[in-house]
């Protein structure tokens, strides 16, 4: 082998005032330049990139060699290196060039970048996943988008089922039972949507959610309404029936056809027709913001669980 052929095998040290030809060169993991044995460490060639990156190849404080580790087991490997008296996990000098796996690239480097996503080697130009169009990253993105769409579809389906359940007409026997509604919370909600006589002064308005008779066309509906605190229960009943378009036969002599109002604070007991609304509130028989049940019949009380 002639001198020229021999010289072509080695690589010159990148340190300007060194330029030593080394046949077993080291490539810095931070700046990616190639150095001789004397300048292989980031500290020995004043590496400008070493402090700005995660030191994936750390330097042993005792032997000053670069260690070959991975991010997940760095401390464990460093410990084993010390226990072996600085013999294990020492990064070996690179003397074989690795070809870039990016399509139609073909660049060969002494120390290629290994992609942990697709498990291939790439040159400096194509080292980032976006630069080599990493198939695994794209696959993960597609899977994430599909998962996001599945969650979106699940939410939409649950919302549709919930809406359908809300408007489904049922019979008293299969009526879904629920807890009593908190009047204070209901009051806040009702004030934003309640209907009533616009001529009633704001300070005189009392709010209630009216549930309509079972087996009527409005059975599964309830309306937030407001009434004048000076009205009697009888007048409130008439107004609620009118807004809900419920046939009012209270002028007839047939008790079973007559409408009555029932409270929920008083456990579903019938409210006297002649009693004043404000008086009932002050005596805590009912509360501003609670639910009232409009039902047909001559019952002294109703089972409030059948209505909500």
How are the elements arranged and paired?
Blueprint: H1 3-7, E1 11-12, E2 21-22, E3 26-27, E4 34-35, H2 74-83, E5 98-99, E6 108-109, E7 113-114, E8 121-122, H3 135-166, H4 183-193, E9 205-211, E10 222-228, H5 233-243, E11 259-262, H6 277-282, E12 291-296
Parallel strand pairs: 9-12
Antiparallel strand pairs: 1-2, 3-4, 5-6, 7-8, 9-10, 11-12
Organism: Neocallimastix californiae
GO molecular function, one term: zinc ion binding
Protein name: AN1-type domain-containing protein
The major pleated sheet works out as: 4 strands, mixed
Q: What's the CATH topology label of the domain at 178-306?
A: Ubiquitin-like (UB roll)
Shape descriptor reads rod-shaped
Radius of gyration: 41 Å
Distance between the termini: 97 Å
What topology, given as strand order, has the largest sheet?
10-9-12-11
Task: Kindly state the number of beta strands.
Answer: 12
GO molecular function: zinc ion binding
GO cellular component, one term: cytoplasm
InterPro entries: AN1-like_Znf, UBL_ZFAND1-like, Znf_AN1
Domain AN1-type: 7-55, 94-142
How would you sum up this structure, described in words?
There is one protein chain. The chain has 308 residues and is α+β, with helices and mostly antiparallel strands. The chain has a domain at 178-306: Ubiquitin-like (UB roll) (Roll), CATH 3.10.20. 24% of the residues lie in helices and 13% in strands. The protein is built from six helices and twelve strands. Strand 5 (98-99) and strand 6 form a beta hairpin.
């Amino acid at each position: 082998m002639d001198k020229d052929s021999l010289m072509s095998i080695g690589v010159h040290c990148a340190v300007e005032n060194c330029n030593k030809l080394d046949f077993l060169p080291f490539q810095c993991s931070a700046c990616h330049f190639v150095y001789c044995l004397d300048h292989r460490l980031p500290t020995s060639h004043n590496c400008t990139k070493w402090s700005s990156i995660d030191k994936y190849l750390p330097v042993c404080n005792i032997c000053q060699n670069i260690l070959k580790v991975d991010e997940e087991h760095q401390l464990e490997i460093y410990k084993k290196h010390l226990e072996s008296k600085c013999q294990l996990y020492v990064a070996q000098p690179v003397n074989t060039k690795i070809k870039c796996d990016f399509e139609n690239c073909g660049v060969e480097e002494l120390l290629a970048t290994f992609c942990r996503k697709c498990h291939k080697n790439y040159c400096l130009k194509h080292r980032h996943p976006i630069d080599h169009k990493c198939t695994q990253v794209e696959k993960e993105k597609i899977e994430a988008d599909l998962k996001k769409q599945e969650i979106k579809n699940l939410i939409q389906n649950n919302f549709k089922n919930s809406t359908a359940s809300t408007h489904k007409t049922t019979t008293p026997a299969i009526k879904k039972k629920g807890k009593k509604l908190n009047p204070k919370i209901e009051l806040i909600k009702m004030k934003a949507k309640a209907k009533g006589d616009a001529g009633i002064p704001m300070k005189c308005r009392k709010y209630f959610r009216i549930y309509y008779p079972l087996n009527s066309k409005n059975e599964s509906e309830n309306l937030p309404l407001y009434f004048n605190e000076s009205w009697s229960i009888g007048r409130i009943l008439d107004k609620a029936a009118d807004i809900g378009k419920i046939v009012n036969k209270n002028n007839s002599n047939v008790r079973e056809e007559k409408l009555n109002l029932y409270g929920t604070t008083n456990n579903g007991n019938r409210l006297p027709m002649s009693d004043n609304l404000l008086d009932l509130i002050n005596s805590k028989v009912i509360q501003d913001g609670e639910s009232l049940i409009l039902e047909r019949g001559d019952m002294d009380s109703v089972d409030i669980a059948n209505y909500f």
